[in-house]
């Protein structure tokens, strides 16, 4: 029995969007892929998700045109990882607005610190998801840096279609 209704044919665009994006793992996977963690093992480690759940979500996200499979060399063999499609990259304002909302409206856990969204073009922190609150430019993944003090990280996002090989293991979950 399904946990909820199938909204893929709904007239309401919010229902149709939630039909694709309503599972919290979907947005977390997109966040990680936009951070260059498109390899299965890096996603599993970063998210703390089981292989079975991750496999199901990745398969569904490829079918929904949020991710594409990308070949990468691994020693003498070729493996497949995942890269964001334009549809997934267009979710950047949603993800960033969720981060801004979370900063404003949820309690900071012990050991936490402010996450800054830096627009690399102008060098300023933005407090908006879609366009820079400092210079007004539309925010693109390749022009964004997420500063996460609790990880001592300045994560540069990657554009749609790119799988980076810089990370073979991921940091603790965000």
UniProtKB/TrEMBL annotation:
Gene3D superfamilies: Winged helix-like DNA-binding domain superfamily/Winged helix DNA-binding domain (1.10.10.10)
PANTHER family named among the record's database cross-references: TRANSCRIPTIONAL REGULATOR, MARR FAMILY (PTHR33204), TRANSCRIPTIONAL REGULATORY PROTEIN (PTHR33204:SF18)
Domain HTH hxlR-type: 12-110
Domain of life the protein comes from: Bacteria
Keywords assigned: DNA-binding, Transcription, Transcription regulation
InterPro entries (UniProt xref): ArsR-like_HTH, HTH_HxlR, WH-like_DNA-bd_sf, WH_DNA-bd_sf
Species name: Rhodococcus artemisiae
Protein name per its UniProtKB record: Helix-turn-helix domain-containing protein
Database matches in PROSITE patterns: HTH_HXLR
């Amino acid at each position: 029995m399904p946990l909820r209704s199938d909204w893929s044919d709904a007239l309401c665009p919010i229902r149709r969007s939630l039909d694709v994006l309503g599972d919290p793992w979907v947005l977390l996977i997109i966040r990680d892929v936009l951070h260059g963690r498109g390899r299965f093992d890096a996603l599993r480690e970063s998210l703390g998700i089981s292989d079975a759940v991750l496999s199901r979500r990745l398969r569904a996200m490829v079918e929904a045109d949020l991710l594409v499979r990308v070949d990468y060399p691994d020693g003498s063999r070729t493996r497949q990882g995942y890269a964001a499609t334009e549809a997934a990259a267009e979710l950047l304002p949603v993800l960033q607005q969720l981060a801004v909302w979370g900063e404003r409206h949820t309690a900071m856990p012990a050991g936490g610190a402010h996450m800054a969204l830096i627009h690399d073009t102008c060098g300023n922190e933005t407090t908006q998801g879609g366009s820079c609150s400092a210079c007004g430019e539309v925010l693109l993944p390749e022009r964004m840096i997420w500063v996460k003090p609790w990880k001592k990280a300045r994560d540069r996002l990657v554009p749609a279609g790119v799988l980076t090989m810089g990370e073979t293991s991921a940091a603790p979950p965000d």
